[in-house]
Amino acid sequence: MFTGIVQETGKITSVKSLNGGGQETTISCSFAETCHIDESIAINGACHTVTSFDKHTFTVQSVEETLRKTTMGDLSENEEVNLERSLTLQTGIEGHLVQGHVDTVGEISSMEKEETGWLISVQFGKEFENMIVGRGSITMEGISLTIAREEGNEFIVAIIPYTWEHTNLKNKKIGDHVNLEFDVIGKYVVKYLASIGRDSL
Description:
The chain has helices at 64-69, 161-166, 184-199; strands spanning 8-18, 22-28, 40-43, 46-53, 57-62, 80-85, 104-113, 118-123, 137-140, 143-151, 154-159, 177-182. It is mainly β. Strands 1-2-5-4-3-6 form a 6-stranded antiparallel barrel. The mean pLDDT is 94.
């Protein structure tokens, strides 16, 4: 479990194919030396398990299903990624409850600079339209954000300067893909209401 508050950006030092299908990714960051085997770390919002580490880097493995549903397969050496270690009982929930289970990949459709921040528009699959609520929470690239506006299968988020500078959003451009995780409570509500509708037919 995570909160969507990015602790720092790491840098990809190595990306290797595994058995022709999976992927092994090594990332450098400031906390690598304090990692432990089997630790959960969200990388751009996708939860991964640490398989090895040293003083400067940690390594994770992505199976085919993860590569199909996230942007992990698009990563390359020297690319910056958002990192968050898992929530503990001593950690304040300063964003919202995030599972690290990416629901779908969206595409940045516009980026607008305002006086103090940025407006980013993201398109996603129409089948997820009922997961979006204006002023509700969404996780994008592992960042807990509030939906400023929504229309059909597109939403807009407002990015404050601090978030812009301390995440990988500053490196994004129109057409780039981003990991999206919809609010977990909303997902359960939608599924429950859908089951009631089916049962009543």
